[in-house]
Amino acid sequence: xxxxxxxxxxxxxxxxxxxxxxxxxxxxxxxxxxxxxxxxxxxxxxxxxxxxxxxxxxxxxxxxxxxxxxxxxxxxxxxxxxxxxxxxxxxxxxxxxxxxxxxxxxxxxxxxxxxxxxxxxxxxxxxxxxxxxxxxxxxxxxxxxxxxxxxxxxxxxxxxxxxxxxxxxxxxxxxxxxxxxxxxxxxxxxxxxxxxxxxxxxxxxxxxxxxxxxxxxxxxxxxxxxxxxxxxxxxxxxxxxxxxxxxxxxxxxxxxxxxxxxxxxxxxxxxxxxxxxxxxxxxxxxxxxxxxxxxxxxxxxxxxxxxxxxxxxxxxxxxxxxxxxxxxxxxxxxxxxxxxxxxxxxxxxxxxxxxxxxxxxxxxxxxxxxxxxxxxxxxxxxxxxxxxxxxxxxxxxxxxxxxxxxxxxxxxxxxxxxxxxxxxxxxxxxxxxxxxxxxxxxxxxxxxxxxxxxxxxxxxxxxx
Length: 464
Known about the structure:
This protein is α+β, with helices and mostly antiparallel strands and 464 residues long. It folds into 2 domains: 16-131 and 166-323, no CATH class; 332-447, CATH 3.30.70.1120. The protein is built from 13 helices and 18 strands. It has helices at residues 32-42, 55-67, 77-81, 85-91, 104-117, 139-145, 169-176, 191-201, 208-221, 273-281, 349-363, 387-390, 411-427; strands spanning 16-20, 46-50, 94-97, 125-129, 159-164, 181-183, 250-253, 259-262, 290-291, 296-298, 303-308, 311-315, 318-320, 325-345, 370-375, 399-408, 433-451, 458-462. Strands 11-12-8-7-1-2-3-6-4-18 form a 10-stranded mixed sheet, sandwiched between helices. Helix 1 (32-42) links the parallel strand 1 and strand 2. Helix 7 (169-176) crosses helix 8. The radius of gyration is 25 Å and the shape is globular. The model has no long low-confidence stretch (mean pLDDT 93).
């Protein structure tokens, strides 16, 4: 049976609970169960969100869809939903996600099929549309966004994906129309939270302060267990208990948009002022002007109050009118990435690894910049031109993994690196082993801005 439309009344003050069960594509598939149990136990309106997109994820999804028209959505979709779909439908917990990736309609069809396989009524599923700008008809818009007037346009044949970051309004519209599950593609991460809040509380679409507060609640949720201590943990310095059984976050949002961040009772991890501060400032270039499709959030006067164990309240966020433009990311083909690795161990291992790198430089001279890393010695700050390693004095490491990489427009030229690394087995230096090689298409990314009015977002309901 379809859930009732939102809001139940035009001026509800009933808090809304939103739990996050994924922060990226490939996140843990057992995270949703404890979150759903906590949401159901609290009763009242609740939403479960899955945030599974990154810039590169969309391009990979488009490549998957080229091979199979029914693919292109989150590969772990069934693994994420199967354990909790029945519980969510029974408890009236709405599900909102961007796991549609390059094929939201395909994801919706797969969810409907999953419900049938589980013997459940097929839920009302809304598909958010409008973010995909990869069609030929959109090429002039992309040229404009990427500086085509300056001769910087990309050839259409090289474009793998082009997506605008949509906001919360289409999500809110879908929920208010009775959708139980909302599936989108490139929806901005915090908008997954703003949409349900907007629908539930019935805020005006230009209530900038409330939208900004809900945006920061979404920002705290969007990376999943980061705010629960996952990315915070640093043993002996920032200890986090129960890291193997991290609880994913839940935001309790009030009618003014203020939120309290918590997690399922008894789960591992920690939510305190320190973890929330780290996540609050994560990927924020200007705390006074955090740009999103829904609002410009100002968290420069934000305040955190610890209410108890694993309960932190955020207030003080203000908002300003949303930008007139939307960000668009374009992923495009840039050739082939060839990688090879080989290990050296024992006395003078680092010297032998450096010599191997020099041999490869001489053998592959003229193909382009060759990146050489000594993993565990000099790899984190190496540049693609490979100059940083050469500037570091030789040490006495006895366990070294040499990694070399080359990007080339032609596959055959890139494949030469694979053969040369393999040849080090017998061609020296001494003692090399454990060779692994890989070759894959490489993607580049360019970003620009498009006028908001030229990217209309909408939804359509799929039933049965």
